């Protein structure tokens, strides 16, 4: 099949290499807002370069992947949908939940399949965690802990346009909690700190965040995020139930240093980025999209599911500002 990729920054250029290695992909068409970046990535992966997203949509592609800046997601996603092309879009659907609602409605009415990028759904250990919940082997859950700690902040320009840590980073944990537990979030309490590089506070963002999610069966989920974990990239999920407890992400690449005398775990080296920690998941995620394009499977992460995540992120943002818990039904009624 012939696919198009819009946006060739850090994740886009990584996807370009992954896509060209997939057996189902015969050719790849790429474009970026910066012509020099388009030429460099196209030359490096053997893709066809075009000058604009409009040219890409008219290039005879079977499906489109969007890895452009967040502010461009709604227009690009709808342009692909209007062209009748199956589309994969990196999270979030939009910076503002109202815009995400409008995009979701247009996409739903079109019938064009849309897949949103939440790679932990494709990571083997996160899938095992979901299976453990579904099997009942953990009993009933009382506590879930989800962690995303980045080694260093992204560039200042990215932070300024990201919509904030809850919409940019925490959404991965929110989606994981919902997907693994199969439960809905009913209440959110969020707090955090901007301590770190000045550009984070200048953008009105947080460098470190903590979110408490109450699920619809009274399970409590604790989410921890930070832009500053110089030892490495830390992604973990703990599930504590009435019968057993399990963890995903407790491997020898865990970026923690044990102080126990004689401890040999973790053996290292630590995971340095999401691209090495989740490499297998990213490949599986994009392979799944080729099946969506081929019509052999439904979207494994629909825009409707991503919209629910967006509502929770919006509740976290509001909670931070009003300094109290925010219920999802309260937020939706505003």
UniProtKB/TrEMBL annotation:
The keyword Metal-binding does not apply. Residues 2-118 form the Gfo/Idh/MocA-like oxidoreductase N-terminal domain. InterPro entries: Gfo/Idh/MocA-like_OxRdtase_N, GFO_IDH_MocA-like_dom, NAD(P)-bd_dom_sf. Pfam families: GFO_IDH_MocA, GFO_IDH_MocA_C3. Residues 126-246 form the GFO/IDH/MocA-like oxidoreductase domain. The keyword Oxidoreductase applies. Keywords: Oxidoreductase. Belongs to the Gfo/Idh/MocA family. This is Gfo/Idh/MocA family oxidoreductase. It comes from Pseudonocardia aurantiaca.
């Amino acid at each position: 099949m012939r696919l198009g990729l819009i946006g060739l920054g850090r994740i886009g250029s990584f996807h370009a290499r992954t896509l060209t290695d997939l057996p189902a992909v015969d050719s790849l068409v790429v474009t970026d807002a910066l012509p020099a970046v388009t030429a460099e990535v196209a030359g490096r992966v053997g893709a066809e370069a075009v000058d604009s997203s409009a040219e890409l949509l008219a290039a005879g592609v079977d499906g489109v992947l969007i890895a452009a800046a967040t502010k461009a997601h709604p227009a690009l996603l709808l342009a692909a949908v209007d062209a009748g092309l199956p589309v994969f879009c990196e999270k979030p659907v939009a910076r503002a939940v109202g815009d995400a609602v409008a995009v979701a409605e247009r996409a739903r009415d079109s019938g064009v399949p849309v897949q949103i990028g939440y790679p932990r759904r494709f990571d083997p250990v996160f899938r095992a965690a979901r299976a453990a919940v579904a099997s009942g082997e953990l009993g009933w859950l009382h506590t879930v802990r989800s962690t995303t700690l980045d080694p260093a902040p992204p560039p200042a320009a990215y932070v300024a346009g990201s919509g904030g840590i809850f919409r940019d980073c925490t959404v991965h944990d929110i989606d994981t909690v919902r997907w693994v537990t199969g439960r809905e979030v009913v209440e959110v309490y969020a707090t955090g700190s901007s301590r770190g590089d000045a550009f984070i506070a200048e953008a009105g963002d947080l460098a470190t965040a903590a979110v408490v999610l109450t699920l619809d069966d009274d399970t409590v989920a604790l989410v921890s995020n930070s832009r500053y974990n110089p030892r490495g990239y830390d992604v973990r999920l703990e599930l504590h139930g009435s019968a057993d407890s399990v963890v995903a992400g407790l491997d020898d690449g865990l970026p923690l240093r044990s102080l126990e005398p004689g401890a040999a775990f973790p053996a290292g080296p630590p995971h340095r980025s999401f691209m090495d920690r989740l490499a297998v998941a990213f490949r599986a995620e994009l392979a799944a999209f080729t099946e969506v394009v081929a019509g052999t499977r439904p979207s494994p992460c629909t825009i409707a599911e991503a919209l629910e995540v967006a509502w929770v992120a919006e509740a976290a943002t509001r909670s931070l500002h009003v300094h109290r818990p925010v219920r999802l039904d309260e937020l939706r009624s505003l």
